[in-house]
Amino acid sequence: MQLTEQNGRHYDPGAAAEGGLKELVMRLLWHPRQPGDAAGAEPANLDALCVVFDQHGRVVDAVHPGCSRNANGSIVHTGDSPTGAGAWDDERIFVFLEALPEAACTVAFAVASANGRAFTEFPGASCHISDRVTEHEWVRLDLAGTFGPHRACRVATVHRDPGGWRISPDAQAMNGAAVTQLLSLPAVGNTGGT
Prior knowledge:
The protein has a single domain, classed as Lipoxygenase-1 (Sandwich), CATH 2.60.60.30. The radius of gyration is 16 Å and the shape is globular. The N and C termini lie far apart (35 Å). The chain contains 2 helices and 13 strands, in the order E-E-E-E-E-E-E-E-E-E-H-E-E-E-H. By secondary structure, the protein is mainly beta. It has helices spanning 143-147, 176-183; strands at residues 4-6, 9-11, 23-29, 46-53, 59-63, 75-77, 91-96, 106-113, 126-131, 137-142, 152-161, 164-168, 172-173.
């Protein structure tokens, strides 16, 4: 299916109606520092994040570069890329929806600048959420074009309902302090960093 563009955000218009989601992958990509960038400048560094909430909005799990997997392995972060110099995707998060803890009702995918730089300072920064098996792309965002001066954003959320898991392409800018607060919570079942 063709992705629809709305305000610089690309999404599959059938995403909200889809109830058969089982395995998702969030892909984050940006380009490393280019020749001509300020000497001594810290490399551009983005982080892929996944936060799981219960029906009351309480955090059940948070997976990010400092906590590479949740307790039962149903969410896995492939590792931190502090420079954006990966050959393909710089960071990935795999989510196996059917294996999530029973309390999980909402899964939020987010991206945050690890060094406080605005998305406009990350050349080629983009984020995609797709089906892990079929590679069907549900959401694609050009981070610099969509969230320019911001430093953190929610990419999409996935909700559990009686018909299964449904994805909502509800991207929006986030307050960096809110992201920091979420990620400073003790990680349940953290099996180590990356």
